[in-house]
Predict the 3D structure of the following.
Amino acid sequence: MRFELDDDLRAARDLAERIFADQASVERVKAAEAAGGFDRKLWQVLAEAGALGIPLPESAGGSGMGLLGLVTLLEQQGRRVAGVPLWPALTAASAVARFGGSAQVERLLPAFVDGSTILTAAIEGTVGRPVAARAVPDGDGLRLHGDLGPVPAAAVADAVVVAAGLESGEITVVVLPKSREGVVVTEVEVTSRESYANVTLDGARVSTTDVLSGDGREILAYLRRCARIALSSVQIGVCGEALRMTAAYTSERIQFGRPLSTNQAVAMRAADAYLDVEQIRLTTQRAAWLADAGRERESEAAALVAKWWASRAGLRVVHATQHLHGGIGADVDYPIHRYFLWGRQIAFSLGSAEATAAELGDVLETLDAETMIGAAS
């Protein structure tokens, strides 16, 4: 199966490639890390170029390129390990565009597309609970409680999309302004040096105008599917660029009178890494294509496959590329080390490949059952 980018997606890719090449030099990335992991100037450049709206529907002020547009954009970010919270912000914005009412969309998304409002999402659960937050009815609104753990870009975001569980077992998804009383944000350091913060909710109140409409479990499933595809997309760029840098280094590094790349063991390990990168790319593009085609049940399984490859193979690639740099690969000031850190951060954020495989098995079993019921009827 081959996925060819159409003219619009190629134009989006070229635009993103130029912006990140110009605005995300190694010096700029280091400066962003020192300032908390967020390059605000780059964020504004992306907004002014219309890049923040690439995957969003035209009705919400975007370019209507869907999740394939998201993949195209985030791969270019990964190539430069640029300190902007694109994947959590676009995951949250995509959910608002799909499930938000007209007033919510008008209030949030134009400001998001022009870069003046930053969104993020907190959608992970805890042991025994599908979500970390709990919601308690309070008049015509809800009070939110819980420790959301490390949330990407929470330190710089204006609002967080939060999934919370009700005592009845239902799930609700809300857009919570960070300025609300009862929202406590504490910055934390993570492996990739991106902007992250712990978020604790102590009775933060939301009204009905903050709640996304529809089945909360469906919205949560959509958020997680988008996040998996988005993180896998960044991993394509991280691993692909790390491999390109490694190919250049081993071709130029002379040892025992010949380039390292002529060593069979080096060539074979690099070839294995190349196959891993292409597997991440293929499975991620397929998941995005299925979602854009409206085949969401198939996309759910495909996103888990992409997640598995981005986690398992992503770790293999960044380990291989660092090892093939030899001693210089362990130098924290050398660029390849940063790709190693990003690759590990993405893999840890996605979760273990074993847990993903177990979840995929459950999804495939459900799909098989649905297919059999459909055939019988």
Notes: The longest helix spans residues 216-252. The longest strand covers residues 141-152. Strands lie at 119-122, 133-138, 141-152, 159-165, 171-177, 183-188, 196-207, 254-255, 258-259. The radius of gyration is 21 Å.
